[in-house]
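Holo model, adenosine-5'-diphosphate. Inputs:
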Amino acid sequence: VAQTPFLLAAEGLNKSFQGFQAIRDLSFYLDVGELRTVIGPNGAGKTTFLDLITGRTKPDTGTMLFEDSHDLISMNEYEIYRLGIGRKFQTPTVYTDHTVYENLVLSLAGSRSVWKSLFSKVSPDQKDRIYEILKTIKLQDKADWKGGALAHGQKQWLEIGMLLAQDAKLLLVDEPAAGMTDEETYRTGELLLSLAGKHTIVVIEHDMTFVRQISQGRRVTVLHQGHVLCEGAVDHVQNDERVIEVYLGR
Ligand code: ADP
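Output:
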C-alpha cells in the first residue's frame, strides 16, 4: 500500500529561548485537506510552533518537510511564504485605507510591493477569482468598503480571504474567534468548515464551543509545555485525564 504523503511532517522539533525550552521533541503530521485545531494552555508553545512552520523562528533541532520534498528548516520566511504557507495573526492586519477588493488584489499579486500590484492590471480571471473569494467570505456587498470600516469579524474574514487570494496551500490561522461575538464566531466556524478539504488549515483556538464546532470528525492536537500531550477526536481529547489536569491546573 502506497503511503499518502503528508502535507506537513514535523519531527523532533526543539526550540529554546535563553535556556527555556518552548518546544520539546514536538512531532506533528498533517494530511492534505485536513482542518486541524491545536489547543493548549497559555505558554504551551502554539505560537512558537507556527513561528517554526513559517520560518519566523528556526528550531534548534528537528526536521520539517512540506509536501514530502521541501525542507522548511533550510528555507527563509519569504521562501516558505512563496511555497504556499500563509498565516493569519490573531490581530487582523488588513490595509485599512484600501478597499476590501483592493486588499484581495494586493494578496493575489503575492507581491511585496503594494504600489506595483495596485497599478498593474488585474486579469479577468483574477477578477473572477476575487469575486469568488468575496462570496466565500460573505463580503460580496462590501467590496468597495475601506478595510478600516469593517467590523472586527469582517476584518478577520477578509484576512482569511487574503490567504485564499495568495493561493496558500496551508492556512495557519491564529485564534480567529478572538474578540468576536457568538454570531461572528459561529460564522467563522462555518467559513473554515467550507474551506476544509479544498485547503489544509491549522487553527489555534481557545474557545471550546468553537473548537467543537469545527472539529467534528476531525483531529485535535493538545500542546503542553512544547510537546504534544494528546491528539485525536475532540471528545476523546476533552475527556483525557491529562488534558483535564493541564487545563484545570491540578
Ligand atoms: P502559546 O502560544 O501556546 O501561548 P508561546 O509559543 O507564545 O505559547 O510561548 C511558549 C513559551 O515560550 C512561553 O513561555 C513564552 O514566554 C516563551 N517564548 C516564546 N517566544 C519567546 C522569545 N522570543 N523569547 C523568549 N521566550 C519566548
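The CA atoms of residues 123 and 129 lie 10 Å apart. The beta strands are 8-17, 20-30, 35-39, 61-66, 70-71, 85-88, 170-174, 200-204, 220-224, 227-232.
Archived with the compound record.
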